[in-house]
């Protein structure tokens, strides 16, 4: 009679799955302690940011200016002082992906600050009349190389304010406003 295969028991599988986050978290750190680094890409302007934006929870002024410009309303080249909480949301997203994949990812920025004129033009596409993009408190993003399900799960985990899921367009909206959730299929 052949030997019984050494199939893992349910308990072994569950124990192994539970250990995965700790294994990934043990991957070597890329940033120095206290640093917050972002790797961002704006496909509308073909501009990038790959730098430290905060050290010991203090926003670096030069990085803040560069991020404000990267997240500008590219339709009219107008920038505003973005809420630093938006950068922290982007960083938290990047950290979750880094833990899950053991590599740094690039976040695509689809929309940051919007002028009232641009926001009005985007209303037929789903832009809210009183969008937090108008106040520099929101960002629409995707992550290169990952689908919407992965993106939505990570966004849900870091969202402290608004979370919008735009399934057909393959991006999420994160903002620093009141906690709420919505989704659009277009």
Automatic annotation (TrEMBL):
Which pathway or pathways does this protein act in?
A: Cell wall biogenesis; cell wall polysaccharide biosynthesis
- Under what name is this protein listed? Murein endopeptidase K
Keyword Secreted carried by entry: no
Instruction: List UniProt keywords, sorted A-Z.
Output: Cell wall biogenesis/degradation, Hydrolase, Metal-binding, Metalloprotease, Protease, Signal, Zinc
- The keyword Oxidoreductase belongs to this UniProt entry's keyword annotation: no
Q: Which domain of life does the UniProt lineage start with?
A: Bacteria
Q: Known Pfam families for this protein?
A: Peptidase_M15_2
Enumerate the cofactors the protein uses: Zn(2+)
Q: Which Gene3D superfamilies match?
A: 3.30.1380.10
């Amino acid at each position: 009679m052949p030997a019984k295969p050494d199939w893992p028991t349910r308990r072994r599988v569950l124990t192994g799955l539970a250990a995965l986050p700790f294994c990934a978290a043990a991957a070597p750190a890329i940033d120095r302690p206290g640093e917050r680094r972002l790797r961002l890409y704006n496909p509308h302007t073909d501009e990038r940011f790959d730098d430290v934006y905060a050290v010991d929870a203090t926003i670096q002024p030069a990085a803040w200016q560069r991020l404000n410009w990267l997240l500008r309303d590219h339709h009219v080249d107008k920038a505003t002082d973005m809420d630093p909480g938006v950068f922290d949301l982007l960083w938290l997203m990047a950290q979750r992906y880094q833990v899950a994949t053991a590599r740094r990812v690039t976040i695509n920025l689809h929309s940051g600050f919007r002028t009232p004129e641009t926001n009005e033009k985007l209303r037929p596409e789903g832009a809210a009349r009183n969008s937090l993009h108008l106040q520099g408190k929101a960002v629409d993003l995707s992550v290169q190389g990952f689908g919407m399900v992965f993106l939505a799960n990570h966004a849900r985990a870091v969202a402290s304010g608004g979370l919008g899921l735009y399934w057909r367009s393959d991006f999420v909206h994160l903002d620093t406003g009141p906690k709420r959730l919505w989704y659009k299929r277009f």
